[in-house]
Amino acid sequence: MTKESIHTPETRLNNPTRRNLLAGGTALAMAGLAGFSRTAMAQAVGAAAPAAPKPLPSYVAWKDPAAMIVHTSGTLETRRSAFGTSIITPSEQLYIRNNLPAPDASIVADRDGWEIMVEGVKAPRKLTVRELKTMGLETVTMVLQCSGNGRGLFPNKPSGTPWQVGAAGCVVFSGVPVRAVVEALGGVAGGAVYMTGTGGEKLPEGVDPKSVMVERSVPLAAMADALLAWEMNGAAMPLAHGGPLRLIVPGYTGVNNVKYIKRLAFTVEQSDAKIQKTGYRITPPDQKADESQPSVWEMGVKSWINSPSGEQGPLAAGPMQVKGVAFGGIHAVKSVEVSVDGGKTWQAARFVGPDMGRYAWRQFVLPVRLAAGTHTLMSRATDAQGNVQPEGRVDNVGGYNNTSWRDHALQVTVA
Ligand SMILES: Nc1nc2c(c(=O)[nH]1)N[C@H]1C(S)=C(S)[C@@H](COP(=O)(O)O)O[C@H]1N2
Ligand SMILES: [Mo]
């Protein structure tokens, strides 16, 4: 790992361009694949050409290869066509986003023995997962979504993983409510206004730890629904998703859900780690990131169509079920509309399946009949507070928080 590659938070750790050019070239040369023309090689590694699918990295070899787009070893996206319609995203299909290489599997050898230091409470102390399990239990169904989901739909192509819609999933987490832990330790110590979680990765040597560590602060109010979770989708939390223990902050973007958490602190200031100070800020175009700009915290109302996915060839004429997902982010989602004429007219879609609560997404469906030709399909959700998914995005350097319904439009052709 080069110094440069770990200094930039959102994905440049695993920037495909230069590394894969080298690695790809070397691998091809070593394997003696003389049959590959120069053009084929250029296409395999080029940005515009359809890249040859990359194999699953070994630490997530258990994922469903057919469901995943492997951007880099630390960034895997769920294919739009792989999203099912029964709400929960299976763990094998859930996206992955690692700012640092995942920790060694030895950390899940003794899950209950994993320790977390709790600070900024009246009686700070270390707690094992075994102890946490005695302190309370709750489950939450929620959308886990990377702040950069939809970045690939920004016209100005911000640097970072060009996620489409698949850096998101709806999953069930179980663990102890953070507030129960805080109560057991005497309550939050005076003055704290943030909840700060620190990831348990081994940091690379020779660099300033603050420049690479995953440490995020969220407003103390987020504690109300936060969990320290050891289970996901009915199984022990996979290491790749933060096992043995993960901080869960429902309604907040992915980065705030700190994996393999080793320290939870109630703090007066936000973390001074780079990922908090200048990383994950809504930085206006052409400006430098700084602490005065909004941090990516609460998620806004959003929806998109998953089927038809636009990944297949021309569709057959006749009746069709347009399907997708809608969620409110920090609030519950209330309704969703679909347009099949590029946003000129809208029809109310119907929610399908059980309501799994405020933080979960809901699947929607609208039966339509499309004539031969090309159609532009999109969806627009409204949350319980009456906030409507916006037509446009807020342009920003990092390509974060894209909720634009127009950017998420799909073009389909009916034969
Ligand atoms: N310790 C730690 N926590 C982390 C990260 C990380 O790299 N290390 N990545 C964050 C980001 S940017 C996202 S989007 C989510 C991804 O969660 P997943 O890989 O379980 O899908 O985890 C967040 N928590
Ligand atoms: Mo993320």
TrEMBL record:
Domain Oxidoreductase molybdopterin-binding: 109-273
Keywords assigned: Metal-binding, Molybdenum, Oxidoreductase, Signal
Signal peptide feature range: 1-42
Keyword presence, Metal-binding: yes
Cofactor(s) the protein needs: Mo-molybdopterin
Keyword Glycosyltransferase found: no
Domain Moybdenum cofactor oxidoreductase dimerisation, chain residue ranges per copy: 295-407
Cited PANTHER family: SULFITE OXIDASE, MITOCHONDRIAL, SULFITE REDUCTASE
Name of protein: Sulfite dehydrogenase (Cytochrome) subunit SorA apoprotein
Species assigned in the record: Noviherbaspirillum suwonense
